[in-house]
């Protein structure tokens, strides 16, 4: 076994990136999206009710509600010749004022995917999240997920194991149902920690119903130090074990543990020695990076979804708001959109 480990080719990226220490907010901290999303939903709701010819007469109180405080009309009378907002506005006019003066302060510039947050998507998400916190909203892969567990997606908080596991299961299922995509298996989010703490014996029975060596891709989500979601992908086609980290850090010991696991799994299930001489361990460099302390789980899920679909990883931090809504609806629908 030791000889096999020594044959592994280790590929490390150049360490040219600057330190990310002290650049991130504490996990679970409130973000601008928490308040801006709520206001955005309120104005989208107004917009949905409006027709092009739907004109309303705003009262003074309604104007202060309709227009954010930062752009509300001053209490004093305007000077002669000074432009003022019209007393009569369509709902679309009011929404445009809000969008130009309030949303733009919080949503990043050129946020292409944020534009896909259509009124229909926002309306469905609002509807889903209204009700008892402990109500089960989706049952999939023998897992129940409640409204409270799903709410982390929209609240902008750190993703929990239940969300990670069901989403990875949807990625796995898509690969099983679509013959044009790689055959994919996804390990539980608890697998990595159990393997590192207890070795092969602790996870030996976890694959009793699946032959990993008939898969193309094996997804292994990893909650590193119970503080940060990362992803390892075992690619049987290219004989490569890769580590995806939205903070661009590496984890060679974890990759080595997975290589040893494959060797043990081969001997235990197939009774065949595992030839590791051509396998590579890669800490993937140049990935999209998170710029806060709570989106690591969304990045992890999107790495898995894109790789398992054969798509380039070309999203950025500004896409996370859209992805959070999309994941919520996909989990409730029980299937991925793509």
Could you explain the architecture of this structure?
This protein is α/β, with parallel strands linked by helices and 338 residues long. The protein has a domain at 34-73 and 86-116. It is 41% helix and 14% strand. It has helices at 2-6, 32-49, 60-66, 91-106, 119-128, 147-150, 152-155, 161-177, 191-198, 200-203, 252-270, 296-308, 320-333, and strands spanning 9-11, 55-57, 88-90, 136-140, 143-146, 184-186, 217-224, 228-235, 240-244, 280-283. β7 and β8 (228-235) form a beta hairpin.
Ends distance: 41 Å
Question: Helix amount, in percent?
Answer: 40-55%
Rg calc: 24 Å
Unreliable spans: 14-37, 50-88, 98-114
Family: Belongs to the peptidase C48 family.
Organism: Drosophila lebanonensis
Pfam family, one: Peptidase_C48
Protein name: Sentrin-specific protease 1-like
Concise account of the structure shown:
This protein is of the alpha/beta class and 338 residues long. It is 41% helix and 14% strand. The protein has a domain at 34-73 and 86-116.
